[in-house]
Amino acid sequence: MPLALKKNGRKARNAYTKEKPSKAKGSLFPSVHLPKFLAGMFGWLKRLGGLKSLAVLTGLLLAAMLVLAGVGTASLWLYNKAVTSDFFITRHVDVTGNVRLSREMVLQYGGIKEGDNSLAVSIAKVERNLRQTPWVEEVSVKRLLPDRFVIKLKERMPSFWVHKDGVLYYANERGGIIAPVESKNFLSLPTLRIEPGAEDAAPYLSRLMKDMQSGALPIEAGAIASLTVSPGRGLEIYLEDREMRLSIATDDWSGNLARMSVTLGDLARRHELKNVREVRAVNGNVWVILNQSAQN
Fold it and tell me: Are 92 and 64 in contact (CB under 8 A)?
């Protein structure tokens, strides 16, 4: 007697229902959608069968390798033709920003000259060569095909002479050595001396140069014969044409500088600078020391 599957429109307790296959929630690896021509090619290879499809695939790979080799060979041939062509000969090299260095020196240090093939010149090498020279702080080189280069420089500007190990050097406004003083690039500058124990006051050198340029200190840089950085006196300036020394302590730089400027202006208005041997600005005061002849 067959089992009753339903009773009064309801499922019987012992009714059996075949489980429906569940839909796949997704494969572990996402499906890859190939372009139509690739999908068609792989479908065609699949229909060919094992050995035939392998042979065709091998042939296709060899053909692709031959095409790539041909492209590489053609590119190399074109490059060799370009670097030997007169069309790319360097005819113009523009140099800007050079002050101490002449144009010829820039080309020599950079390793570039007119007549070189512009494509064969390594811009990175030219910039590296120029940065290794003591006078060049920043450099950029631009190639303008077919025959021009533009070299822009920012040079290190000397502010002082510095004696070191018996050699006279140019130094920047912070006292950093640039290059030896030579006849071909001679420039007369104040002599700088930093005494032992005064190294922490060296940054005030650049402040002094800026204050003189702005007029905060009424003296010209060209009037300074020597400058000494001292742990006791601060920055000591010697004006050779007046045989006068100016000492500015660094503990209150702005205040001492302002008081020094007012005092020098007052002495100049009274025409008394010729009688002054030394002016010191320290501890909120300004001391004026007269020449021996003026004291008598």
Answer: no
- 169 and 254 part of one domain: yes
How far is Cα 41 from Cα 60, in angstroms, rounded to an integer? 11
Looking at the structure of the chain, the number of domains it has is 2
Which domain CATH number covers 116?
3.10.20.310
Domain that holds residue 289: 160-295
pLDDT in tens, 230-278: 998 999 999 999 999 999 999 999 999 999 999 999 999 999 999 999 9
HEC secondary structure over the chain: CCCCCEECCEECCCCCCCCCCCCCCCCCCCCCCCCHHHHHHHHHHHHHCHHHHHHHHHHHHHHHHHHHHHHHHHHHHHHHHHHCCHHHECCEEEEECCCCCCHHHHHHHHCCCCCCECCCCCHHHHHHHHHCCCCEEEEEEEEECCCEEEEEEEECCCCEEEEECCEEEEECCCCCEEEECCHHHCCCCCEEEECCCCHHHCCHHHHHHHHHHHCCCCCCHHHEEEEEEECCCEEEEEECCCCEEEEECCCCHHHHHHHHHHHHHHHHHCCCHHHEEEEEEECCEEEEEECHHHHC
Residue 128 lies in a domain: yes
Residue 121 in any domain: the answer is yes
Same-domain pairing of 220 and 275: yes
pLDDT at 54: 62
> In sequence order, what are the residues at sequence separation of 6 or more whose Cβ sits closer than 8 angstroms to the Cβ of residue 182?
none
Residue at a domain's end among 106, 139, 155 = 155
Residue 104 pLDDT more than 70? yes
